[in-house]
Structures are given as structure tokens and as C-alpha cells.
Amino acid sequence: MEEESYMEVEEPEGLYVRNLDDVKGIIKHAKLDERNLTHITQAIYYPSSEVVSDNLKLLELDDHMIKQIHEGQSLYFKGGHNEKVVLCTDEKTYDVKAAEISNSLLLIPDLKFAAATSTSPLKSPRTANNTSLERSLNDSADDDLLMERTLEQRQILKIFHEYFECREIRPKFRKMGDLLQMTRYSGPEHEEAIDRKLLFTFDQLLDTVQCSRKEFVEGLKQYRCIEFEGWMRVLECEYEYRIVNLMVGLIAENSWPLDEVEREETINALEGIAPKQIVEGLFDVYTVPSDGKENRFTYKEELVARIVAQNILQPGLKFRVDEFLSTWQEAVPEGMKCDEKYLRGLGIFDKEGAVPCIRSLSEENLPLNIHDRMRLLFKTKSKWTLEEIEPYIECFSTPVLSVSTLMAKHARSLMENGVRFYVTKH
């Protein structure tokens, strides 16, 4: 028979404190066999009015967060006055939500569990399935003749009726973009108009944006953000296109192969046209080191194609697909190819009319509320394939909530010629 530990919960300390006679009396009235109990009894008392525990919260941790703690990393909360708080590690971001607990949980410092409440020598298990505390009734009785019962007092520090559950979410980059757009760089001649109070250093922006450090660095790349004079800046679109166009124009001018672009030559060629730090930052954003070629670089085809397309697809304009693709291809350096997938989240095709067209639709400018975004998307285009709408909805997805699941909830699907389309529910 397995030994049991014995605990009882009392009113706050000061009203009454149990003694050994009380314990033995309760065991007797409960018709328990004392030989089947371990020798330490713990009397538990509800928190007294002097105990301050409002600063203690119960937080659910997943394997990743536990690993971070074991490695000495920090978990930190982020959120402004009008923002819902999130929890971040160095790599992931979590939504935090309060949830009720069906059975109250007690936080009791120094509470002993079964094995720690036994003062008797432990016997060897009789079978592989027995616990280390299991002993025969005769052995237990012999031990109890030698061991006296002891009583220990335990104070409840806090009773939890709720906990905070964490759900991994995508990083919230929109705030980063909005803050950076307020001080976008459009040339030294326009710097006097910039409100210096709205500028952010790397650390200041990291503290403000609701995402982990790793995701934050990815967000800076997504917005093509560079550090200029100690501040994190994005460039005004037309100014960025002008500088990048001059940079890639050096490929033909110097007869460079696409994978043999020279960094210093590029920076020196634009001296006097743009600040050196701006050119260096843009070069680092738009290029990668060439494989097997020391001090030679290759432009990222997708980034170059997107900035060119963004310059062509001005808001409010509509282009015939064939004319746009031709103009787009002619505007990029020879050897680079323009692919429709590079327009992801930047423009949409409308092939429902007699003449297929394309127009600008930037994900960065859409509403942050999923219901408002859905209404705007279906107002812009009556029916979408999953592939078309995914770039505009994926920011609301999570590791357990896919884009297709979101569409099933917020839209209605139909099949046309073997292709699934999504239309508005209402």
C-alpha cells in the first residue's frame, strides 16, 4: 500500500494554529490508518492580511520559453497605452490573454511533496510498477513504532483563479513602418522639415515595436531601413528609386557581370549625388556577396524589380498587363528577369474584364482590423484565389491558424472551372 502525506488547510494565521493532538484527532475522526501516512504533517493556512502578493501572476510557458530561461535569456512584455500587451523572447512574439482556472491553484513556498514527507527508511520496490514509498503494512507498522509524527506550518502566499496563456503570433511590424514613415528621408535639402523628436535609434525603435529582436531585424530588412547619422530611417519611395536606379546603372556603364558589382566603385560614383552613408546603406540592403568572388557583389533581383514596379504602379493608375510587363522588364538591368511573384503584396491583376489589367495595392496601406481589410479587399476585387489574397491576409495568421482557415471564416468559397475563388460573405 502506498503511503500518503497529510495536509490540511486552515484560516489565516493568528486565528488558530494546529498542534499534534489536533492532527491525530482529525486522522482518527477521518477513519484513516496512521500507519499508511508519512510522518510529516503540513498545516496550510490561508494568506493573512499582511501578505502582499498582487505582483505575482501565473504565466503559461511553452518549450521555447522554458529553453530561453534555462539559457539565461530574458522574457519581456511590450505594449503602449493603447496596445494589447505581447510577450517576447529573443526570437518569438506571443499574444497574452487572461484565462480562468476551473480549480484554484495555491502558491505555497517550501511545501513538501510525498517523498520529502517520509522520515522512514525507504524499502526496495517489490515490483517494477511500485513507487519508492510503497511498503507492506507490516513494515510500515514496525517503522511507525519508532517514528514520531511531526507538524510543520505552511503559509499560502497566493491563490490563483486565473493565469495568462500565451499564443505565438506574427510580429506586429505596422507600427515600425508608421513610425519610420513620419521621418522618411528624401534628401539633405529636406532634413530641416523633419521633427527630430520623432527620430528613433535602433534600441528605441526595438523597445517600441511589439516583436522579438530577431523578428525586429527582419522587419528592418522588410522596410529597407538603414541607419543614418545614428537614426533609423526609411527613404521616400521616389528618392530611393532614383538612387537605386543610378546604382544599378553602373552595371552597364562599367560592363560589370551581374555577379561582379564593385562596392567601393559604386559608392564613389555617387559621391556628391547622395550622402555616402545613404549609398552604403542602400548597397548593403540591395546586394549580397557573390559566391566564390572576393569583394564582388550581386544585386537582389527581387528587391530591384520591386522598387522599379513600385515606381511604375502609381496609386490610382491601371495598366494593361502586357504593357506593364514590357515596361517593367525594360526598366531593370539587362540579365535580370521580372517575375509576377515579385509583385506580391504590391499590385493585383484583374483578369475578369475583356482586357487583363494590373493596378497598385500595397499591403502596407491596408487597415489593421481584419474585418475592415476584408471589406476593402472585396470592394477592390470581387473574387480572389487563395494565392492572390494570401499576401494581404497572412499578417493575421499564426502557427496554428492558416490563411485558408481565416478565409473560411471571413469569406465564402466557390468553384469555377476547377478553380476555387473566395467572395464576400455578405
TrEMBL record:
UniProt entry keywords in alphabetical sequence: DNA replication
GO biological process, one term: DNA replication
GO cellular component, one term: chromosome, centromeric region
Coiled coil in keyword set: no
Alphabetical list of InterPro entries matching this protein: Dcc1
Keyword ATP-binding found: no
One Pfam family this sequence matches: Dcc1
Family stated for the protein in its record: Belongs to the DCC1 family.
Name used for this protein in its record: Sister chromatid cohesion protein DCC1
Native source organism of the sequence: Musca domestica
Name of the gene this protein is made from: 101895272
